[in-house]
Amino acid sequence: MKLKKEDYSVITGPALVLHGVKDLTSDIDLVCSCDKFEALIIEGFQVKVLDEGSRYIILDDNVDIYDSLNVDDFIIIEGYYVASLNVIKEHKRLLGRAKDFQDIRMIDDFLSNSEKSELKD
Q: Which residue in 3, 9, 21, 5 sits closest to 71, CA to CA?
């Protein structure tokens, strides 16, 4: 199945790159509609479940597609639907890994520096 830009939203690491919070990421995390997610299952992709209940599919070594994330809050960056920084922070809190807490600190620093910059202008 080929996903079109409008079929998914970019989340976590690659979203942080698109927002300008960090320079690089090692993988791509996306969230798609329930219909597209179910179509991937029908195609034979295996579903994995995180401890907190989120379902995801490993599309390949570097691409995970999630199903049950709340990504109502997004913006368009470079033509891609991208989760807001608040959505990313919440998802990373749920994941609760050391690297996620590091990313949360980066987001907070980025937002703090952005607010300071706006005050100077």
A: 9
Domain total of the chain: 1
Q: Which pair of tokens denotes residue 107?
A: 């987001």
Is residue 17 domain-resident?
yes
CB atoms within 10 A of CB 39: 15
In a domain, 120, yes or no: no
CATH number at residue 38: 3.30.460.40
- Confidence (pTM): 0.81
Using CA atoms, how far residue 83 sits from 8, 39, 47, 75, 119, in Å, is 10, 22, 22, 7, 25
Amino acid sitting at position 8: Y
> What pLDDT is recorded for position 50?
81
Of 75, 106, 103, 78, residue with least CA distance to 91:
103
- The DSSP element (H or E) to which 55 belongs, if any, is strand 55-60
